[in-house]
Amino acid sequence: MKWLITGGCGFVGRSFAARLLGEQGHAVRVFDNLSTGKRSDLATVGAFSEINVGDDSSIWQEGLSLQEGDILDECAANRAVVGADVVVHLAANTGVPQSVEDPMADCRTNIIGIVNMLEACRKANVPRFVFASSGAPLGVQIPPLHEELAPHPASPYGASKLAGEGYCSAYFHCFGIDTVTLRFGNVYGEGSGRKDSVVAKFIKLAMAGEVLEIYGNGAQTRDFVHITDLVQAIRCAAETANIGGETFQIASAKETTVSHLTDVLLIAMRKEGMEEPKVVHGSHRQGDVARNFSDTTKAKNQLGWTSKISLEDGLRDTIRYFLNRSNR
Ligand SMILES: NC(=O)c1ccc[n+]([C@@H]2O[C@H](COP(=O)([O-])OP(=O)(O)OC[C@H]3O[C@@H](n4cnc5c(N)ncnc54)[C@H](O)[C@@H]3O)[C@@H](O)[C@H]2O)c1
Fold first, then answer.
1. Which of 146, 25, 129, 21 is nearest to 80 (CA)?
2. DSSP letter assigned to residue 137
3. DSSP secondary structure code for residue 173 in this structure
4. CATH 3.40.50.720 domain residues, the chain
5. Which atom of ligand 1 is closest in space to residue 187's alpha carbon?
6. pTM score, whole prediction
7. What is the pLDDT of residues 257-285, one digit of tens each?
8. Distance of alpha carbon 54 from its chain centroid, rounded?
9. Best residue among 94, 129, 130, 230 to mutate for probing ligand 1, ranked by most atoms within 8 Å of CB
C-alpha cells in the first residue's frame, strides 16, 4: 500500500508510520512542513529518503520518505498525493489555546489546509482519506460524546475541525472519495515527547523535579486513549470497506477524572523508581469542560475497533518511554 501521512513527523504520524513499517509491503510518505515535528523526530521511526522539488513523486518505493512541504501549498500537495492509496491527514494546528490566540491562522491551516489536500486527492483520484478530528467540534455537551450529537464548537479549533468534517462529508458525496473522520480522545503514550497534554506534561515536570498543578479540584473528566489503540483505529479506518463519509469517536470510552489519572501516574512513577512529585491544585482554567468521555459503539460495530490498553499499562509504558529518552 502507498500511504501519504500529512503531519507525519508529529506524535500520531510517527507512531502510525512505525506501525506500517513494521510490516512488509508499505511505502510511507510523510508530508510535513517541520513546524513542530522535525527531521530528527522522523529519524526515530527509521532511515528515510527525501523527495525534493523536481523528483518524480509518482514513483513510490517501499519504506519511509519525507516530502518537506506545507498543506497550504497547492503544488506541493498535488505532488505529495499522486499515486497514493490512502491519505491520512494529521497536519493541523492542534491546540485550542493557539486557535483562541490566532483564529485566522487556525482557520488557514485546519480549513484551507484540508480543502487543499482533498482537492489534491480529487485531482489524483486518491480513493481514501482519513481525517484526524477531535471531540472539539462537539463542544460543550453532556457526555458520553457520540456521532449523533449536534456539534456546538466552543473554540476556533473546534470550529475549524468541524469544517474539516464537513468538507470530508462533501468530498465523499460529491466526488466519491471514501473520506473517514476519526474524532480522537486525549491521546497519550510513547512518542509524545513534544506534547503538552496532561500526561506528557506531568511526566516531564516530575522528571524535572517540579510540582504538578491540577487545574481546579481535579474532578473534571477526560477520555485518555493510548497511542497504540489509536494507531489501530487509523488502520481500520483506512482499510474497512463501505465507511466512506462516516465519522467515528475514537477513545477509551472510560470517564477518568484528572485526579484519578494523577493518582495512577504517581503509582506508576513510584514503581519505575522515580521520585514522587508534589501535587498542588491551581485555579480552574477558563473554558475547560467539566466532563468528557466518548461512546465508541459505532467504531466497535463498523470498524471492529475498541481500545484495549488499560490506563495503568499505558501510563507505565509512557513513563518508560520518557525515562529511556532522557537516558539517551
Ligand atoms: N494528540 C492528541 O491528543 C489529539 C487529540 C485530538 C485530535 N488530534 C489531531 O490529530 C492530529 C495529529 O496530532 P499530533 O498530536 O500528532 O500533533 P503534532 O503536533 O505532534 O503533529 C502535527 C504535525 O503536523 C505538522 N504540520 C503542522 N502544520 C502543518 C502544515 N501547515 N503543513 C504541513 N505540516 C504541518 C507539524 O510539523 C507536526 O509534525 C492533529 O490533526 C490533531 O488535531 C490529536
1. 129
2. G
3. H
4. 2-188+224-253+299-303
5. 3
6. 0.98
7. 999 999 999 999 999 999 999 999 999 88
8. 31
9. 94
CB atoms < 10 A from the CB of 135, how many? 24
Of all protein residues, the one whose alpha carbon is nearest to atom 42 of ligand 1 is 94
Decide if pLDDT at 193 tops 90.
Answer: yes
Pocket of ligand 1 (CB under 6 A): 6-7, 9-13, 32-37, 70-72, 90-92, 94, 109, 113, 132, 134, 184, 186-187, 197
Strands 86-89 and 128-134: parallel
pLDDT attached to residue 285: 81
Distance 5 CA to ligand 1 centre (A): 11
CATH architecture, range 198-221+255-293+308-320? Alpha-Beta Complex (3.90)
Q: Is 190 helix (H, G, I), strand (E, B) or coil?
A: coil
For residue range 302-311, what is the model confidence (pLDDT) as tens digits? 999 999 999 9
Q: Which residue has the cell 486518491?
A: 126
- Amino acid identity, residue 141? Q
Render pLDDT for 87-119 as a digit per residue (tens, 0 to 9).
999 999 999 999 999 999 999 999 999 999 999
Distance, CA 8 to ligand 1 centroid (Å)? 8
Query: Which residues make up the CATH 3.90.25.10 domain(s) of the chain?
Result: 198-221+255-293+308-320
Q: Which fold has domain 2-188+224-253+299-303?
A: Rossmann fold (3.40.50)
d(CA 205, CA 184): 25
Closest by CA to 247, choosing from 312, 322, 164, is 164
In one-letter notation, the amino acid at residue 251 is A
Mean pLDDT, the chain, whole residue set = 97
Burial of 240 from C-beta contacts in 10 A (0-12 / 13-18 / 19+): middle
Pocket test for ligand 1, best of 5, 6, 12 (most atoms within 8 A of CB): 12
Which residues is 249 bridged to in the sheet? 183
